[in-house]
Amino acid sequence: MEQTHNKKTSKPYSPEFRERAVRLAMEHREEYRSEAALFTAIASKLGCSPDSLRVWVRQAQCDGGEPPGQTSAEKARIKELEREVRELR
Q1: Which stretch of DSSP H or E encloses residue 74?
Q2: Is the pTM above the cut of 0.85?
Q3: DSSP letters along 30-46, please?
Q4: Cβ(38)–Cβ(51) under 8 Å?
Q5: What is the DSSP code (8-state) at residue 47?
Q6: What is the C-alpha to C-alpha distance for residues 42 and 30, in angstroms, rounded to an integer?
Q7: What radius of gyration, in Å, describes the C-alpha atoms of the chain?
Q8: Contact partners, residue 42, CB within 8 Å, separation at least 6
Q9: Is 41 within 8 Å of 32 (Cβ atoms)?
Q10: How do the pLDDT tens digits run along the chain, 89 residues long?
Q11: What residue ranges do the domains of the chain occupy?
Q12: 15-88 fold
């Protein structure tokens, strides 16, 4: 039996919203005892999930070179190459 995945293709938050959320989290990180508390508080004020905010902050950190990881540009390039490989098959 074949399973289908109903994955969303549109992103519910604009890039500007994400940038603002990340900026707020980074500016207020010293005010909280843990990252979990930070993400929960900021996300509740913005109306997004703490996990989404955590992912956005982690990606922004990678894009800035801390910690080591794939940047957004690298992820986009890999996705593009994978799409090209699928088309060639």
Answers
A1: helix 72-88
A2: no
A3: GGSSSHHHHHHHHHHHH
A4: no
A5: T
A6: 13
A7: 16
A8: 21, 24, 25, 28, 53
A9: yes
A10: 445 556 665 678 999 999 999 999 999 999 999 999 999 999 999 999 999 999 999 999 988 887 777 888 888 999 999 999 999 88
A11: 15-88
A12: Arc Repressor Mutant, subunit A (1.10.10)
